[in-house]
């Protein structure tokens, strides 16, 4: 992606009238409206810009950590602390612990204030709009489930922060390695603590029950790695040795902790990916798969909300 395109994907929204985002995709034929929208162009531009930014870099490399990034880490720390303060309830059913709803109600109440604390003073008017994406990013309180649509809402939340200038182009590495990584840790804790169901899970035919983006960005980290090839990630020794450096391996480690039985059976798609010869091929394939399996699937996109920052209006040609 050209530098100017990257710039516009990560910055903008100087003079916008903010609005509370709402759903616009209510029927399958509406999907063409989504694919033509400015929101789709901005969202995929954001994902691909970060994909390029993390290429060949590990989690422990040096990068700038801005004040906004620190504030986002504080926000995620607050969500984490609320989990500790909201223990699972005693209930007969194993899955979907209802204490999650208590945790979620707290976020529902506090989201705008949490977001306002992250924004520069002259951008506080954007808090009600951006807070919607934060609330959408932690799972569904009715079904007590979590899936790639919720993950997409968090990426949309970060994209909006870029569009209002709270995050900047030079925050790219910190966005993925610090903020998104911390978000994943909080989501894993939520999934484990409240035994959340996977939303719209495809079982063994899906890439993963809960996440997708860390596999894309994580595979980009490995591009041109001198020794680690795709075939190595199914080796538990490699995972245990290198997971602190690579997002992809952190995901595999979590799967290994949560699932029993042969890897090829419980995570068939990932098993197949381990046979791909190079990480750049893996990365390209995962981007294609993400578009087809998440971004172009009505059951995922029907929940996406559109406002002034991520607009349903047709994209600029």
From TrEMBL:
The gene is ptpa. One of its GO terms (cellular component) is nucleus. Belongs to the PTPA-type PPIase family. InterPro entries: Phstyr_phstse_ac (IPR004327), PTPA_C_lid (IPR043170), PTPA_sf (IPR037218). One of its GO terms (molecular function) is protein tyrosine phosphatase activator activity. It catalyses: [protein]-peptidylproline (omega=180) = [protein]-peptidylproline (omega=0). Keywords: Acetylation, ATP-binding, Cytoplasm, Isomerase, Magnesium, Metal-binding, Nucleotide-binding, Nucleus, Rotamase. It comes from Cyclopterus lumpus (Lumpsucker). Gene3D superfamilies: 1.20.120.1150. Its EC number is 5.2.1.8. CDD domains: PTPA. GO terms for biological process: mitotic spindle organization. This is Serine/threonine-protein phosphatase 2A activator. PPIases accelerate the folding of proteins. It catalyzes the cis-trans isomerization of proline imidic peptide bonds in oligopeptides. Acts as a regulatory subunit for serine/threonine-protein phosphatase 2A (PP2A). Modulates PP2A activity or substrate specificity, probably by inducing a conformational change in the catalytic subunit, a proposed direct target of the PPIase. Can reactivate inactive phosphatase PP2A-phosphatase methylesterase complexes (PP2A(i)) in presence of ATP and Mg(2+). Pfam families: PTPA.
